[in-house]
Amino acid sequence: MFDISDPRCLLPKVFFGISTKEAVDLALNPERSDVSKEILLAAKKIRAANVHPDTNQIIFPAFRMCGYALFNAPITCGMLIPGQSLLKRIFWQALNQTHNAAINYSNRNASQETSMATVLQGYLGALISSVSIVVGLGETVKRLKFSAKTKNVLSRFIPFPAVSVAAVCNLVLMRKAELKTGIDLYDESGKLYGNSRVAAAEGLWATALTRVALCLPTLLVPPVVMLALEKGVLKRRPHWQIPVQNIVCAVSFLVGLPFAIALFPQEGSIEARKLEKEFQGLKILDKPVTRFYYNKGL
Q1: Nearest CA to 227 among 101, 82, 83?
Q2: 3-state SS, residue 291
Q3: Radius of gyration of the chain measured on its C-alpha atoms
Q4: Which of 177, 208, 234, 251 has a CA-to-CA distance to 226 between 20 and 30 Å?
């Protein structure tokens, strides 16, 4: 997951000496004798970070997991700026949900096609839920009988529940069709056996937990760090606040993202006995197939 989220993969020619297209060709033809082992390993890494595993299409840079930290950190920084007006808070939530919706779609399980109507439904559901929580919790904090300092601290943590709930809402609305049609199941050799609704439900649940886990380092760590810095160096140099917060958000993304998505790897596996009856008791060369594999998406 460190490889998939490595920002250097956005510029593979600069950092690894080969382009994304060259990496795809090498990853699909590892038997070539005219390239070194290091280049082959780099090609595998670049392909995993930049290419969709189902469609084999190159993902737009801003929507790749390796670009998440660079492209979303400034948005996260904007959401975490204290004392913003209602309009500005809504703007940052809308921008964040737009980016997240594009990432969800670009890294989806593509074994089942997702219509644009479904994508739009997921986006609107996430936007409405996030804005509702931000506005609702913001007004609640304002009415609490706490000091202004305490209210300021509490307001910094409002984006976490807003983005977490919205991310799960977006995911479920965009991929709910998988629960009806199922997702592709493979054996260890990559042979396709059909679609499973049970695997779709397990994969969707695990991916939803990943979305919440991703918000922990990116939306809880920066406010804590910034509160500590504001008592020290930023108290003497308040004009440093936005640049420093951008750096803190970027570092939180770079460190936290791999761990968050590694909790539930993109490729899932499930025992045959937990699946529908048609996947139980299958054999290959008289050897029972006890486990199947599927792509959960990110």
Answers
A1: 82
A2: strand
A3: 22
A4: 208
Q: Which of 187, 195, 190 is nearest to 283 (CA)?
A: 187
Per residue in 125-176, pLDDT (tens digit) is 888 988 898 889 888 888 888 888 888 888 888 888 988 888 888 788 877 8
Contacts of residue 127, Cβ cutoff 8 Å, sequence gap at least 6: 93, 94, 97, 98, 166
Residue 275 DSSP class: S
Q: Are 244 and 228 in contact (CB under 8 A)?
A: no
CB atoms within 10 A of CB 37: 8
Cα(65)–Cα(62) distance, integer angstroms: 8
Burial environment of residue 198 by CB neighbours within 10 A (0 to 12, 13 to 18, 19 or more): middle
Residue 249 CB contacts under 8 Å (≥ 6 apart), including other chains: 73, 74, 76, 77, 80, 218, 222
Beta bridge partners of 58: 51
Tokens of 268: 């899932």
- 3-class DSSP assignment, residue 196: strand
Distances, alpha carbon 71 to alpha carbons 63, 205, 225, in Å:
8, 26, 21
pLDDT confidence of residue 61: 92
* Residues whose CB is less than 8 angstroms from the CB of residue 170 and which lie 6 or more positions away in sequence, other chains included: 97, 100, 101, 104, 122, 123, 125, 126
Nearest to 68 by CA among 111, 102, 116: 102
Instruction: Specify the pLDDT at position 151.
Output: 86
The pTM for the full model equals 0.75
Q: What is the pLDDT of residues 231-266, one digit of tens each?
A: 888 888 888 888 888 888 888 888 888 888 787 777
Q: Which residue has the tokens 């490595």?
A: 6
Residue with the two structure tokens 């804005």 = 131
| DSSP letter string, 78-108 | HHH-TT--HHHHHHHHHHHHHHHHHHHHHTS
pLDDT at 60: 93
β-bridge mates for residue 185, sequence order: 194
